[in-house]
Every structure is written in C-alpha cells, then in structure tokens.
Amino acid sequence: MASTLLKSFSTTAQRNVGNQLSSAMRSFATIHVEHGRGVWKTYGDVNNYTPGKFQIKTFNKISPIGLARLSEDRYDIRTEEQDAHNAHAILLRSHKLKEEEVAHTVRAIARCGAGTNNIPVARMTELGIPVFNTPGANANAVKELVICGLFLGSRKVIDGINHMKSLGEQGLARERVEKDKAMFGGREINGKTLAVIGLGNIGAATAHDAAQLGMKVKGYDPGLSVTAALKLPSSVQLSDSITSAVADADYISINIPYIKGANGTHHIINDEIIKHFKQGAVLLNFARGELVDSDALKKHLDTKDGRYISDFPDDVVWNHENAVILPHLGASTEEAEDAAASMAADTIKMFLEEGSIRHSVNFPTTSLPERPKGTVRFTVVNKNVPGCLALITESFANAGMNIVQQINQSRGDIAYNMLDIDVSSNGDVHSFKDVQEQITQIDHVLSTRILFGTPGQGYAKKIDGEYFV
Ligand SMILES: NC(=O)C1=CN([C@@H]2O[C@H](COP(=O)(O)OP(=O)(O)OC[C@H]3O[C@@H](n4cnc5c(N)ncnc54)[C@H](O)[C@@H]3O)[C@@H](O)[C@H]2O)C=CC1
Ligand SMILES: O=C(O)C(=O)COP(=O)(O)O
C-alpha cells in the first residue's frame, strides 16, 4: 500500500532520547491523518479539530465534580446541545445511545452508573470501542431507596399523604384524621422474609441492611463471586433458583442487569415465577422495568393483594392502586452522582492518557507499569483470533523497533494490547506512523493508537477495510 508519509529518519535518529521524543511530540501536534478506503495519508488540517485537547461528548446531567477531574487544559467538554463531531470519548448516564451518535473519532464510552443496557455494547465491541461503567459508585443511593421501598410496600404512606392533602383542601384534616387512619393500616418488616435476586453491589448492601432491620434474608445469584459472598451477612440464606428464593418471601427485591436476547434477563420475573409469589408479596424493582412482565404482575396485584414498588415507567400498572412508580430516582443523590461521574471521568482519563483499561463491560482489564522514559506507547485493539499478536510484534521487529514492555489480554471476541517501544531503536515520528499504518492493516486489527502524551493524536481505526480518525 502506498504511503504519502515522508520518511525522515536521518537527523532525529541521532539525537538523544529526550530530544527525540519531544521532537516527535512536536511533529505529532501538527500531523493529522485522514483515512479513506485503502488509502492512508496525512494532510495539514482537519475541520473543527482542536489539537492538543481531548474532546468529551456528554449526555445527561453529569456531576460537575466528576467533570472537574478532566482538567480544562487537556479536555474540551461538550454537552448534548453542543457540536462534538470529533469527540474522543462519550460520558453519559441513562441516555439511550444510538450508533450514529458515536463518531468515528470516539475511542471509549463511559456510563456514569451501573447499567449499560442503554448502550449498544455488542456493536461497540465489534467496532473495538471499550464501554466502561462505575461499579458500586451509586449502589448506596439505590440501596437506600430500596429500603425506602420496603416501607412504602408495608405502610400506606403515599395513600395517607394524598388523603391528608385532600382533607386539607376541604378543611377537614383535624376532624377526620383519627377516624380515617384505619384505612391506611400496614405491617412491619421486622421478622418478615426478603428475597434478594442479584447479590452484587446493590443487592448485597440491601441484604445487609435488611438483616440489620430484623428481616430474614434469602438471596439468589448464580454469578456470586467469592469476594461478594464473603461480604454478605452470614444469616443470608442462599437459594439455588429464583423460584425457591421467592416462594416464601414477603418482599422480593430484584437487583440484576437487564440483558436482551437469548440467555438474557428480559421478563425474568414472569408468570412462571410470579405464580410462586405469596399472597401479599411486595416486588421491589429498582433494576430495570423490562425485567418484569407487567401483565403477569398485574394478575398478582389484582388477585393476591400484591404490591409493586418500582423505579421505572410501566404502561400496564402505572396507575394500579397497589403500585408505587417512581421516576428512576435510585441514583439521583448528590453523593452518587458525584461518585459515579468521578469514577467514570478517572476511568476515561486513564484510558485516553495511559491506555489502561479497568471497569469495562466488554474489554479485558489491562494495564502496564508507567511508560518508561524514552519509550512511546502503542495500543492495539484486535479481534481475539490466533496469530494476530505475532503479526503485531513482528511489525515492530521488521521496523527494527524494540518492545520494552507489553501486555496482551483478551475477553470474549476482543483482545487488547499495550506496547511500550524504545524510541532510540529507530526513526522519528514518521517511522512510528509507518508501523502504525502496517499494524492497522493487519487482518482482524480494529484500531491502533500511539500515546505520545499529546492528547487527541495518533488514533487509527479500521472498519470493513476503511480507515477513520
Ligand atoms: N434505579 C437506579 O437508579 C439504578 C439501577 N441500577 C440497576 O441495578 C442493576 C444492578 O446494579 P449493581 O448491583 O450495581 O450491579 P452489580 O453488577 O454489582 O450486580 C449485579 C448482580 O446481578 C447478578 N446477576 C446477573 N444476572 C442474574 C440473574 N439472572 N439472576 C440472579 N443474579 C443475577 C450478577 O451476578 C451480579 O452479582 C444494574 O444493572 C442496573 O440495571 C443500578 C444503579 C442505579
Ligand atoms: O446506574 C444505573 O444503572 C442507573 O440506572 C442510574 O441511572 P441514572 O444515572 O440516574 O440515569
């Protein structure tokens, strides 16, 4: 393949490593790479591209405390309303992200929260884009609302409040209060049984606090890790199926991710499960609306005096007298918003500036020790197929470049590589761009980056043989 890059090894190659690297970084600040089908070339300017800063596209209200971790000198933060067609990363909460909102320049997406069902994760994996979330950052906020839900499901607090408003409007509150309260009797949670479906960050915290409040707690989670199990109170009784967990429960809290498709969790709480619910059982859904089959649930509310406390819209039971529907408030506390946005910002920063990966839902956790002086860091995303890694390392060897340290990790269909290359071994910035070009062309390689420390440079992406920055 023809390259229009001019090679200029001569002078730079002789300089000491420090000069060489800073010279390379200066050259990089002016190099922009345009990619077209089968062609790789450089040119001087790219419309609306801001050299030197990473552009971050945000959706939803992201906590300013979190965003402040992305310093103004290195990050250009754009809101939903602002143009950001050269965005390097996306930060969002519950916005339902469409593929067309992910510009070809986007290298990463971070969800300030737990659930990533609003992001087309499978497609992002195909495109080689890591998706991150913030495990545990908003769990306490949700747990507190689940505990509140236990009380809302036991005591007719909301009906009582509405009644008092209505009496107040008629000037009858004092006269009627003692007589009317008999309409709003309830029960206590102490001594009752709670089944927690999903014992992750929220479920485990809920199990813990419910036990403290005197409840008998049962739990079901086929993916329970040993670490998570050790954090659970010893009194929690583990069940081997949802059915056995819910069978004798007065309260059921569902705290699992929503996953579409085969082996997913769509309508996991369906007629089959709900028919095992006890008379008067209260279902708490602070996870996702789609986990529950509302038609089946309605029968439980209609015929078995069941209750439903949910954080999500529902077309069937939204106005049922036994349902309390909240406007997705679980994570809407200052503390949770700050914690989730801060964790997401730190994760994105780490990925953009160092290439390290943590808290990803589709990429392997990957990190290298700090980049040694006199090295340039490459990262490569490729499909997890045999032989790819050998071709990548061979490209450096063919260019006479020495790999100082490297790591290759895989997860499912994707593999991720970080490689620190000795800059004294060969050439200047153009030699590195040449190697990047060769690596990007390898079959199954999806994207490559050179991290020079100059933000916003050195990215190349290949989709169906077509290159993009
Ligand atoms: N209402 C709100 O504002 C919020 C809602 N959420 C929802 O809650 C969910 C859980 O959040 P976290 O506890 O932070 O996540 P997490 O990842 O810490 O825990 C999820 C747990 O569910 C388990 N699980 C998965 N599939 C299961 C199944 N079929 N049956 C039983 N257990 C299963 C997993 O093994 C894991 O332990 C999120 O995915 C999100 O949908 C999370 C945060 C805020
Ligand atoms: O973290 C989650 O999964 C949530 O549901 C929280 O959503 P939010 O960030 O409040 O829009």
UniProtKB/TrEMBL annotation:
Highest rank taxon of the organism: Eukaryota
Pfam families hit by this protein: 2-Hacid_dh, 2-Hacid_dh_C
Reaction equations catalysed: (2R)-3-phosphoglycerate + NAD(+) = 3-phosphooxypyruvate + NADH + H(+)
Enzyme Commission number(s): 1.1.1.95
Record key words, sorted: NAD, Oxidoreductase
Domain ACT, first and last residues per copy: 377-453
SUPFAM superfamilies: ACT-like, Formate/glycerate dehydrogenase catalytic domain-like, NAD(P)-binding Rossmann-fold domains
Xref: PROSITE patterns: ACT (PS51671), D_2_HYDROXYACID_DH_1 (PS00065), D_2_HYDROXYACID_DH_3 (PS00671)
Pathway linked to the protein: Amino-acid biosynthesis; L-serine biosynthesis; L-serine from 3-phospho-D-glycerate: step 1/3
Coiled coil: none
GO molecular function: NAD binding; phosphoglycerate dehydrogenase activity
Homology family: Belongs to the D-isomer specific 2-hydroxyacid dehydrogenase family.
Protein name in UniProt: phosphoglycerate dehydrogenase
Organism: Fistulifera solaris (Oleaginous diatom)
